[in-house]
User: Fold this.
Amino acid sequence: MVRDPGSFRDPDSGILLAGNRVYRHFSADAAKDFGDLTENGLLASFVQSGWVIESTPIDRGDAPDVYAAAPKAALIVEHPRLPFISYPYEWPFEMLREAALLQLEITLAALDAGFMLKDATPYNFQFVRGKPLLIDIGSFERYEEGAPWMAYTQFCKMFFNPLLMQAFKAIPFQPWLRSSLEGIDSAHLSSILPLRRKFRRAVFLDVVLQASLNRRQSAPKPGDEQERKTRPIPKAVIVGMLKRLRGAINSLKRRGGGSGWLDYEAQCPSYTPEAIEFKDRFVEDAVRVAQPEMLWDLGCNVGRYSTIAARHANHIVAIDGDEPTVGAMYERTEAGQNVLPLVEDLLNPSPGQGWAHSERQSLESRGPADFALSLALVHHLAIAGNVPLTKIADWLASVTKAGVVEFVPKADPMVQTLLRHRRDVFGDYSQEAFEAALGRHFEINESVSIPASQRTLYRVERR
Amino acid sequence: MSLAFLYIDPTAGGLGLQILLTFIVGGFVTIKLMWARFLSFFSFLRRDKEPADDQAAPATPVPVETGED
Assistant:
């Protein structure tokens, strides 16, 4: 039994992990809030709507070892284990927007029933079968009449400001959220927004005015805190803020949506229709034989092969570095499909970070996958990223147990495009060298040439 | 910059905004209430004058007959 390294900030609630089982412990106060939430049927209605994760209370007598791991716990509940934990800096615009809207919907419904959410962070959400799901039920607490919305600033920094930055300035929020785990400050966003955007109601109030009030806040004087505590905020004001933010976020559209990679499949000259059909069949057969629990599609583009693999693998994590492409993939993924699209630059994947480098896990430590598709990827890592073939094979062996790998030789038109504006310093880039590099870690069970192309597909299994 | 500034709760601006909105909403509600009182005061005056108005030409259009007579 171990404590989840990313769950330690809330003294009233936290996550315990035991093999494949996930538990949440509550303090006496939090257990009372959970009891109230269950009693009035709110939690059940959220679970039924697919908004909040299921929780099954565990009796102390039935699981003394679990209670022993959290001696101060008044109550422990069990959650279903999620197949993969992703982070907001790995989501495209569309996914963060959907999580933001769900946070607001849940807060509005909770407030209506006399509850509040103590925090508002996208780290409390995970995407399951294409939909966001609130996983932090410790976030609910009883609403006290007159209390402010304490999580308002956090909501702006973690949801609203990143979305605004991408929608109004076409700056992707992922690199910023990846280094600033507490989100984007309103003052920073305000300084880059164009003047005409600042006059929109939500932007003026929630970014410009909030930043200005933060700046103008004078040093606290004795009694200030008490005065702030006794100044009640009517519920109607909070509901108005929630609805205003919901309206503003609903109207946001991505900017910077164009990407050459969106049309890659239609325009790639390396494949004839027969070649595509051959590759589809090879991939599907390989996944059908492997029947993996977890499959990673590395360099997934708009997810053609993720969709094929989803017929035979239980969970797919589809990874690509091009944010608009991943956003389009999320929009196209059918509701209920077991595919999780993520933005990830494989030349610089998510590191372990946050407190003690363990609060947010690296991509690698969330693996290895049972099976990986690495289709038309190796030449990008090797030629665009200057990564030697041996290092690519080492890395593949660290992230998957088996898979299908495609090798694209130098003579291929797409590799020629990569080499067009640069000196060819890739003397070691050859099929023989790649097979030798793969062979250091994997058994090559099958290798086939794709018809009417010079590309080769390998079905491999780690030794 | 005052050293104390560095120790301010980062949600101070957010709380300040909620307090400001409370004042604004409170102000609107007060104005609305006062306006309603103002109107009801004049409607009271109008009701008081109604018998006298019966003899004079009506200042406002005569209400449409409902046919209840």
Remarks:
- Residues 52-69 of chain B have pLDDT under 50 and may be disordered.
- DSSP finds one helix and no strands in chain B.
- Residues 46 and 53 of chain B are 9 Å apart (CA to CA).
- The first helix of chain B runs from residue 12 to 55.
